[in-house]
Amino acid sequence: MSGEAKPMQPADVTRLVAERLNAGDAAGVAALYEPHAVLAYPADRPVTGRDAIQALYQQLVDAGVKFGSEAPLPTVRFEDLALTSTRSADNAGVRVQVLRRQPDGSWLRIIDRPEAPGA
Q: What pLDDT shows up at residue 117?
C-alpha cells in the first residue's frame, strides 16, 4: 500500500474499497485486506488470501461493477479488532466486516461478508 492512503479508522476501509474498485484498482482493494483474510462473496463460496481476493475484485472491475456510497453503521471495537457494517443501498440487508489494527495504527479487513440478508 505504499503511496496509497492508509485507513487510519475502521470506517475508512469501506470508503477506500469503493473508491479503489470504482477506479478499477483491484490490487489496491486487495491491499485493504490482511494477507490471509477471508472474503465471503458470494456467501456460500468464500475465498482466502489477498491473491484470491484480488482476482475476485478484478472480475468485478472487468464486469464494470461500481460501488455506491453507503452510510456506515456504528463501529464496534474490542482492543485491536473492529466490526464495521453498512446497510445496503436497497435496504435489503447489511454488509459486515471484521478488521484488525495493524502495528502502524492502520486497519485491514480480516473477514468480509458483503451480503447478508436483512432481518
A: 52
Integer CA distances (angstroms), 54 to 21, 32, 61, 85, 90, in order: 10, 10, 10, 21, 26
Res 116: pLDDT: 56
The pLDDT value recorded for residue 87 is 87
In the chain, what are the domain boundaries? Answer: 10-117
Read off the DSSP letter of residue 57: H
Q: Into which CATH architecture does domain 10-117 fall? A: Roll (3.10)
C-alpha cell at position 72: 456506515
Residue 95 pairs in a beta bridge with 86
Residue 35, number of CB atoms within 10 A of its CB: 12
Using CB atoms within 10 Å of the CB of residue 45, give its burial: 0 to 12 exposed, 13 to 18 middle, 19+ buried.
Answer: exposed
| Residue tagged 464494470 (cell numbers) | 64
Give me the residues of the chain with pLDDT under 50, please: 1-2, 118-119
How are strands ordered across the β-sheet holding 93-101?
47-48, 33-39, 107-117, 93-101, 81-87, 76-78
